[in-house]
Amino acid sequence: QVQLVESGGGLVQAGGSLRLSCAASGRTFSSYVMGWFRQAPGKEREFVARIRWIGGTTYYADSVKGRFTISRDYAKNTMYLQMNSLKPEDTAVYYCAAASRSTSGIMRALVEYDYWGQGTQVTVSS
Fold first, then answer.
1. CA dihedral for 39, 40, 44, 47, sign (positive or negative)
2. pLDDT per residue over 42-61, tens digit each?
3. Three-class SS state of 88
4. Cα Rg, the chain, nearest whole Å
5. Exposed e or buried b for every residue in 35-54, given b needs 16+ CB within 10 A?
6. Are strands 18-25 and 10-13 parallel, antiparallel or unpaired?
7. CA proximity to 9, closest of 101, 117, 126
8. Can you tell me the distance from the alpha carbon of 8 to that of 96, in angstroms, rounded to the nearest whole number?
């Protein structure tokens, strides 16, 4: 079992920055892929970014590419999402997730992830 705890959400003005953290515990997951998803009110949960725990290769949704950076601290078992140039449309609950099976695919589908955090609210005011 893997436990994921997000932190770092809050209220920020458009153009500002926030850094989300996701602390993982419970198992070793050297083969895992971890990702960030978000869900805005009235909308479906959507992929934001993911990182392979070993190797650190990343993939981003087009909507955040160039503004958000996903990273991980291998020693701390923690994943981060640095969000810059935030827009009101980035407002959502942000969830971190872990996939216990790593494939060669993009791995942006919700069903590919086995474990989820409780979410952290990010609100961007205009």
1. negative
2. 999 999 999 998 888 999 99
3. helix
4. 14
5. bbbbeeeeeebebbbbbbbe
6. unpaired
7. 117
8. 12
